[in-house]
Amino acid sequence: MADTPHVKIGLWDYVGLTPPPFGHAMRQFWSFDPKYINLNHGSFGAPPTPVQGAANVLADIIEENPDKFFRIDWYPLLSKVRARLAAFLGARTEEIVLVNNATVAAGIVLRNFVWREGDVLVGATTTYKGVYKNMEHIHDTNPQLTIANFDLDFPKSNDEILKDFRAHLRALPRAKASQANPDPKVVCVLDSIVSNPGILMPWREMVKICREENVYSVVDAAHSIGQEVGLDLEAIQPDFWFSNCHKWLYAKRSCAVLYVPKRNQHIIRTGFPTSHQYNSDGSQVKSDWMSKPNTNGDDWAVPFSWPGTMDFVPYLSINAALDFRQWAGGEEAINTYCRDLAREGGQRAAEILGTRVIDESGDGAQTLNMVNVELPLRDVPANKLDFANDVLRDRLLLEHQAYASHFYHNKAFWVRFSAQIYNELSDFEKMAEVFLKVCEEIKQAIREDVKSSPQS
């Protein structure tokens, strides 16, 4: 197998050509239905067609000789992707591994801690449900553990968040030292960018607060890579950090990066599922079939390279994704366009809907490439919340061929618009008109139901 050029095939048709301007001219590099308006890139991502092409070529190469790929070629190729990602994130290669997705990464980190009486696990009321369910299950299987959630209701300023966050950590019920657990630990799961609402958190400062309060920071950065420019994990020093590469970075779904600095690698003794290289005494077991050249001190990462037979193409598609981003204009240009469009589009949608954006900072400090706009659905009865969400989903996808994530938060319905380089302001305007129409249908249906109910 050649070095790595096959993972870039699919891009060569565009190399040397001037990329089109951002906006609808960029849609030619995505496989969307021409009638579909996608303002929900943040949920599942969408690889550009050149990245899909590169992935398809790689899949064909694997099938030419699966044994050669898995036994000889796989680990060296993976190592090169990890090195490139590490440079992108301001980290060391030996501290970077790839896993299926951010929820898997959360499970790996949290399930590797040994939980004892007096330990505390901190989440938030806005923690992504899949991650929070991991926390919940850990508590179910370790009832001696305490879960202490940090309440977050938006709108809320960064100054208020930081003040309340520190107060929350200081108020935790830390148990007194005991023989069984002389040094109870506190582990805090925090978001870099909340999923719903799509809010940029002051997470760097929150990591610093965790360090000052002797708390492990586990940063769910599912939306960060490809959306936050200039990440420098060595400087920020989170204890654990993970992000999806198939969302904003344009890789093929699904794949995620997990960062564990050397100081904490003794905690993470196994990936998920536990691999061939696991040993209960903590030493590495050399596989009898996978080729591993000199790992140069990379032994901790080796077990993550083989979680069992699976589709490894998404992991290697990261190369093609990074190549496409460079060709399209680079990180600064991509994210400046998306951020500016999100802010402008959010304000325009709020005007059409007659509502407001959730980021009231004035300078857009909490808004990157996702913007949250309130929907005109105030005072929906509690027993109609699911109905409203279901109608929004079905009408948008089945009738209007358009979508943006919608959710209920702090006694109101919101829509989270994701801005991408293939979007323009007109997408926000059209989508807002659709939401306006569907919201009126929902309100009318609720009014008719109330009139026809026996109590009325």
From TrEMBL:
GO terms for molecular function: transferase activity. Residues 78-359 form the Aminotransferase class V domain. The keyword Transferase applies. SUPFAM superfamilies: PLP-dependent transferases. Keywords: Pyridoxal phosphate, Transferase. InterPro entries: Aminotrans_V_dom (IPR000192), PyrdxlP-dep_Trfase (IPR015424), PyrdxlP-dep_Trfase_major (IPR015421), PyrdxlP-dep_Trfase_small (IPR015422). It comes from the Eukaryota. The keyword Transmembrane helix does not apply. This is PLP-dependent transferase. It comes from Phanerochaete sordida.
